[in-house]
């Protein structure tokens, strides 16, 4: 493990603690500011003077740091994704504020300042995020100017995956890699020579078809020479990504879980889906009425269409605003020759003649998909998940494709925010499979935020 990774990680806890204290003090003095106090007199300082307030803030800050540690904000790593950190900061600060509210309630130390709690919450998120942004910029500057923290890597492999890794390392300097070389089909002696000469620190095996014996030799070599070893998993390793071990008597039994979405995670996700869908339907109901009027004026036919889809092995009726001429499904067979997705069972035409004028607008901004909130409310879909699947598509799926059916389909998902219109069918399946196997609330929140960026930038749906 490089010193740079340890250094930049060690900086974070004291920096976060300092920023949390500054945020709490800022919220306090904003509250007692005369401009604010003239609208609502300050009362809480009578039973919570500044010295007791500072003691309370220190305690809350320590609690927040503990939450930060639990959710991975202090995991030792060189490259940090600011958006991921930001989402975790929101979770950690929110947990701290909730803890403060419960503490005040049970200790009967309630003070009349909702302003202080809200501003403290906002300020803590802003200050901690700003501190980490400064560290991130400083880290990038040292890396670019002095090569501080760069990891010299050797990539092994000759297929498309290895080339994709090589190209990505070359194009993304913020990854912290310096590519030494790419060996296509080397033997172990050749790797040893390349490692000793330029000072390689990390080996990435991108060829998943390497014989196990050679892989073990390479792993042992890396261990003996204190090198970091990383590899691209093959299909079997992907299938065993979610495994748990238990014992029956003295016999260990491995359970292969279809998805990481299990237990409390599934419950929390359903609650979020229900509340989000209900809120969305209430807020958007006037807009739905307006869209319905335009659809009826544009072409004959119903406002909504109900399409057969499969989710978790069950058939349901997907609700959408009608964006095509009435009876579009019956015309699909005549257009099969124009299908642009030849690599799989999906059907897609860039300029589909069945799409109406208003339908082009609805599809451009994904408005036609908004009624799927009804499906989410009913529990047939989720806000975030793999793309809904048609029965005739599933009939053509191979065995490993069906992994994406393990959880509910979503209105948006990992593949959709990763350029689904430009992805091959296999690439789309891999992304959705990754989501199924590695689900987390933080991942859902990240996909949700990225969805809005895609809506503003991507016009491929029309």
UniProtKB/TrEMBL annotation:
Protein's recorded name: Bacterial sugar transferase domain-containing protein
Domain of life: Bacteria
Main location: membrane
Alphabetical list of NCBIfam families matching this protein: EPS_sugtrans
Cellular compartments per GO CC: membrane
Gene3D superfamilies documented for this protein: NAD(P)-binding Rossmann-like Domain
Segments traversing the membrane: 7-30, 50-74, 86-103, 115-135, 274-295
Keyword Phosphoprotein: no
Molecular function as annotated in GO: phosphotransferase activity, for other substituted phosphate groups
Family note: Belongs to the bacterial sugar transferase family.
Membrane topology: Multi-pass membrane protein
Domain Bacterial sugar transferase: 269-456
InterPro entries: Bact_transf, EPS_sugar_tfrase
The entry's keywords: Membrane, Transferase, Transmembrane, Transmembrane helix
Signal peptide: none
Localization (cell): Membrane
